[in-house]
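To the team - 4'-deoxy-4'-aminopyridoxal-5'-phosphate complex, inputs and output below.
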Amino acid sequence: MTKYNFCAGPAMLPPAVMQKAQKEFIDWQGLGVSVMEISHRSSDFLALTTKCEASLRRLMNISDEFEVLFMHGGGRGQFSAVPLNLHLDDKPAVYCENGVWSKGATSEAAKFTAVESINVRDDEQQNGQFSIKPASSWELPADASYIHYCPNETVDGIEIFDVPSHPSAPIVADMSSTILSREFDVNQFDLIYAGAQKNIGPSGLSIVIVRKTLLEREGLAKPGILDYALEAKQGSMYNTPPTFAWYLAAEVFEWLEANGGVKAMEEQNIAKAELLYSYIDSSDFYSNKVAKHCRSRMNVPFWLNDESLNDKFISESKEAGLLALEGHRIVGGMRASIYNAMPLEGVQALVNFMEKFAKENS
Ligand code: PMP
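Output:
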């Protein structure tokens, strides 16, 4: 039976990438050893990192005005790194809050710097559905060390499709669960970061795309491994990087380029999301609580209207080969994460199962 993994992260990776990695596992490029057993400073590994960065730059159209860093510590590592590097003594960091992860970023930053948080949700205006105000109406203060927001809230299933702007403060985005899922104009941002474990590769690695001029900020005293300027100077090798995760990221980027790049992924992601949301909307057995204009294409939370059937739904979906559909513990219900690696057939299999389950339990 084909199994489909809907885990929010660590998430499924493209099967073609996993098969290639399996083949190369103990003998990479004829070296007679695994890629995880060689020096990160060897010419073979350095060739991999050069290729990996070039590939990401092509995929996201990243100009020379930006540095690309491969760091440790996932998304939360960056929750700390951002304030430590971008702090200014005389201006607050502004955090736009729209769900669980943006709030998490706010509380981490508040340990290090003065923070002003802004609620960008607009739930009352949408008959109780979760909703987001247009970015152009966010009340951003005139003075800020930076503006932080989260374009895709993985837990809440809320995605923001417009980009805030500010006359002077840099725009920082936590793209952990949306990077490479749709086209972004990187030039609208000053710092983009993402934990790898959704659309990039294994957990632990984080990618940081930072405008070079921001590296001149002194920020606060910080651990070397979270220091952007130091990592940029050292080619992301101030200390031993997570080499196997970096290798797999390079393979995922190669797979993306061979499969039409971000534009093709975006088209497929729209089709997958439409299939699932339109079924949920047409059903009186399931519901989604997010206003249509800000529904996530990557993480689709849904609720059974009769929640006493939750355990049955989870156990029968598992038997049907549909894995990890439990909602996040904070919000409950169900959640299907449908990142780039999830094929349309996986979403169709989920919809077929949901239809059958609804019929049998109505
Ligand atoms: N930001 C977002 C949007 C996330 O979805 C997550 C994890 N799911 C994080 C940050 C935290 O990432 P990590 O667990 O790698 O620290």
